[in-house]
Amino acid sequence: MSSTLITVADAMITAIATGSFGVPLTVERKYYFVRDRGDGDTGIYVSLICAAPRRRERITRKHSNEVLLIDVVVERKLPAASTLSDYDDLMDLTEAIADSIDGSTFAELAVCGKITPAAEYSIEHASDDKFVAAFTAELTTVRAIS
């Protein structure tokens, strides 16, 4: 049986992969950020990084919340002749993915209630020819305690 985090991340992958974003995407679940995909690879990758442990909070004597954090990273190696417009299109895509996740329920287990920037990916991995933007989706479950 998969953990709640894996089940929810896999449901998010399905939702993003089947979303109508107008461009082909490769969506994958990872435990780390893939820094280099190869020189000739210019595909758009959406990586869900699930390395963060969950946080559990008791809300009543018989119920608790589990808070899951999943980083969503959008990346693409751009050709040398890229323009600012190429980067703008990828930022728009990143925002559209975040909007599609925000407020959604995944695997009938968790609701995404908060989206926050995850700038560390962009700062550390972006370059003149590589677009990287990321956000953290905070998802909450409610569980009965026996």
Task: Provide a compact summary of the structure.
The chain has 146 residues and is α+β, with helices and mostly antiparallel strands. The chain contains three helices and seven strands, in the order αββββαββαβ. It has one domain (4-33, 42-125): STM4215-like (2-Layer Sandwich).
The helix fraction, in percent, is 25-40%
Shape: elongated
- The secondary-structure element order is HEEEEHEEHE
- Report the strand count: 7
Look at the structure and give the mean pLDDT.
86
Main sheet summary: 7 strands, mixed
Proportion of residues in extended strands: 35-45%
CATH class: Alpha Beta
Overall structural domain count: 1
Q: Can you tell me the CATH topology?
A: STM4215-like
Give an overview in words.
With 146 residues, the protein is an alpha+beta fold. The chain has a single domain, classed as STM4215-like (2-Layer Sandwich). It has three helices and seven strands; from the N terminus they run H-E-E-E-E-H-E-E-H-E. Strands 1, 2, 3, 4, 5, 6 and 7 form a seven-stranded mixed sheet that branches. The protein is elongated. The chain starts with a helix and ends with a strand. The mean pLDDT is 86.
Q: Layout of SSEs?
A:
Layout: H1 4-17, E1 26-30, E2 45-49, E3 55-58, E4 63-77, H2 84-101, E5 105-106, E6 110-117, H3 119-125, E7 130-144
Parallel strand pairs: 1-2
Antiparallel strand pairs: 2-4, 3-4, 4-7, 5-6, 6-7
Task: Looking at this protein, list some descriptive labels.
single chain, 146 residues, alpha+beta, STM4215-like, seven-stranded mixed sheet, 7 strands, 37% strand
